[in-house]
Design brief:
Layout lengths: L2 E8 L2 E8 L3 H8 L5 E3 L4 E5 L2 H6 L9 H4 L7 H6 L21 E6 L2 E5 L4 H7 L6 E3 L4 E5 L2 H11 L3 E6 L27 H16 L4 H17 L10 H13 L5 H19 L23 H8 L5 H12 L4 H5 L6 E2 L4 E7 L3 E6 L2 H14 L17 H15 L7 H14 L4 H8 L4 H5 L20
Helix pairs in contact: 7-8, 7-10, 8-10, 12-14, 12-16
Length: 473
């Protein structure tokens, strides 16, 4: 096992930090050691500084290095510059051959720290643990932001291997923003939310619940706001401005090619948070929304729908897909249905508390009523109309998606059909059959008629009657 071991002080406790390649087998071996823990801040595994562990990792029984022992965590760069760099002392801290005792040069220039050193696997792993790190191919050196914590970590890790500490500018940039050093947007996923940010998000969630927002909306807004605050976790909340929202949209949303609808969700979460919770330096009214693309709904022909609905011989699977299409239901609405929501005498289906916390009704065909009766006799559901393997628990949404996928495989339809396509197809087929747009709006549960009007663009009934002038040539 190739590694570098070093005595450190972590959270007031003497520990031994061990740096090694990110390998599952090595991690599994290290976890077996008593008291082994991972430090997210130091980006290393560590164990207790005991005589047994010092012997195991070939460390002499000496005090922790002067830099790690210093209690004043607010040292300035001038103080570090005046610190005497001692020569390498093998007896004090033995470094394994994979991390040779060659000299390291650290240059601090303005907003950046440049680290020049022999390229070794263990050192490379340590350097890549920094946020916003990049490798300068021309100068053959690592570049990281000039944060005080970054400098402390460098000194603690390299310690007596530092040959030269060059300071060309003494100004610190503790609040350097992410946009100046973000080279890998994937790193945003691993950023840690500050304690202040966590408290604000908890307060935000309490406010949303008090306003009776749905749990799905609360979850969406929470995740969106967490991402935004993590992105600017080096900034005080009161310092975040509209300019930061624009930078976030450009440097994260657009660079990662995320959808306009996702961007809109983030904008909604940010606007609501800063207008109701923070209400400081950001003007929610000036946050612009993305221009959403005008996409046509995906629709299957009646022939294709018939093939999909008849693909399954399993009564439950077939009934679920048929009911989904015959009433234009959303997936979530179907799996939340209960037997009492079916009014077979009036041939209507009652959909309770659907999107927007609205109740509505949809007409039931005689054919689907007969299918539901047959299904009920066979499965005898207790709480939900469609239950999973456990009685009283609603059918899983992912399982329903798999049911559709299996139907598509049986029919040979190659289109990327989703469950929502059946709802779109239902609305389009109603329109083509001459149903008034207002009734379709009510059946689907749309708040605005503009939402329903999109189906006029995919209905082929009128378009097919248009004669092309090409036929007269």
């Amino acid at each position: 096992m190739k590694y570098t071991a070093k005595q450190i002080e972590h959270k007031g406790e003497k520990r031994i930090a061990v740096y090694f390649a990110n390998d599952a087998a090595l991690i599994a071996r290290f976890k077996k050691l008593e008291g082994a823990r991972w430090s997210a801040s130091l980006k290393c595994w560590h164990v207790g500084d005991t005589e047994e562990n010092r012997e195991k990792f070939k460390l002499a029984d000496v005090l922790i290095s002067q830099l790690a022992d210093e209690k004043d965590n607010n040292r300035t760069i001038e103080q570090l510059n005046n610190r005497t760099i001692e020569p390498i002392d093998q007896s004090a801290n033995q470094l394994i051959s994979t991390s040779s005792n060659c000299n390291v040069t650290i240059t601090i220039k303005g907003k950046q720290i440049f680290i020049k050193m022999p390229k070794k696997a263990v050192d490379t792993q340590f350097m890549t643990s920094f946020r916003y790190v990049r490798w300068d191919k021309k100068r053959l050196e690592w570049v990281i932001p000039n944060y005080k914590n970054n400098l402390d970590m460098l000194n603690s890790y390299f310690d007596k291997r530092i040959n030269e500490l060059i300071i060309e500018e003494t100004k610190q940039f503790d609040n350097l923003t992410i946009r100046e050093f973000e080279n890998d947007n994937e790193r945003t996923k691993t950023l840690i939310l500050s304690e202040a940010g966590k408290e604000k998000i908890e307060k935000y969630m309490h406010w949303l619940r008090s306003k009776r927002y749905s749990e799905s909306t609360i979850k969406t807004y929470k995740e969106a706001l967490q991402l935004f605050l993590k992105y600017f976790n080096d900034k005080v909340l009161s310092d975040i401005t509209n300019e930061d929202v624009i930078l976030f949209n450009n440097n994260y949303i657009l660079k990662n090619k995320l959808s306009a609808s996702y961007q809109n969700q983030v904008v909604n979460a940010i606007k609501l948070f800063f207008s109701k919770i923070e209400n400081k330096s950001i003007d929610p009214e000036l946050i612009h929304r993305p221009k959403r693309p005008k996409l046509l709904p995906n629709v299957l022909s009646k022939e294709e729908v018939k093939l999909v609905l008849n693909a399954h011989s399993n009564v439950k699977h077939k009934t679920m897909l048929c009911l989904l299409y015959s009433c234009g239901l959303r997936c979530g609405e179907l799996i939340r249905l209960k037997p009492e929501h079916i009014d077979s005498k009036r041939n209507i289906l009652i959909i309770k508390q659907s999107k927007g916390r609205k109740d509505r009704i949809a007409p039931l065909s005689n054919k689907i009523v007969e299918m539901l009766r047959e299904y009920y006799k066979l499965y005898k559901p207790t709480l939900y109309l469609f239950e999973g393997q456990t009685k009283g628990e609603a059918y899983d949404e992912r399982s329903l998606q798999l049911v559709l996928k299996q139907a598509l495989e049986k029919t040979g339809i190659k289109k990327p059909v989703s469950l929502h396509w059946l709802r779109h197809s239902y609305a389009t087929h109603l329109l083509e059959a001459g149903t008034d747009l207002r009734y379709i709006q009510e059946i689907l549960g749309h708040s605005s008629s503009k939402t329903t009007e999109v189906y006029t663009h995919v209905s082929t009934k009128s378009i097919q009657n248009v004669k092309s002038p090409f036929d007269d040539l």
